[in-house]
Every structure is written in C-alpha cells, then in structure tokens.
Design brief:
3-stranded antiparallel beta sheet; GIY-YIG endonuclease; alpha+beta; 3 strands; 41% helix
Length: 81
Amino acid sequence: MYKVYAIISGKDQRIYVGLTSNIDRRLIEHNSGQTFSTKGYRPWKLLYSENVADRQKARKREKYLKSGVGKEFLKRIRLGL
C-alpha cells in the first residue's frame, strides 16, 4: 500500500506532492531537512493524502496532482472549498 500525499509549507504556503509507503516517516524527513527540495520551506503540514494499491498507480496519481488541474484541486482543499 502506498500513499500519495500533499504537504503545505508553513513558510510560504507552497504545496509539495509526493508518494511514500510510510507517511509518518516521510513527514519527519521533510520537517527535519533531510529532503533537499523541501528543507528551505519548513515547517511542513500534511494537507492531503490518499491510499493507492500499488506503486505504479501511486506514481500516476502523483503525476496528476502535480499537474495544473491537480494543483488547482489541492489549492481548493487548502482554501477549504
């Protein structure tokens, strides 16, 4: 089982999308600066996650959430719409 997730920066409200098999560990990695692409925008908070059966499907969903339409979906969640 994989999770596709979106986290939001407490610094500037940017959204980062990724996939993992362990969401708790991954969020700790983001907030402790172990991830190069996110360490400058800490702290991070979980915005959205969904379970996906296998890695291939998770990667496809991750790509969707990184697209323009997917980012708009996440921005609506951020705004509570």
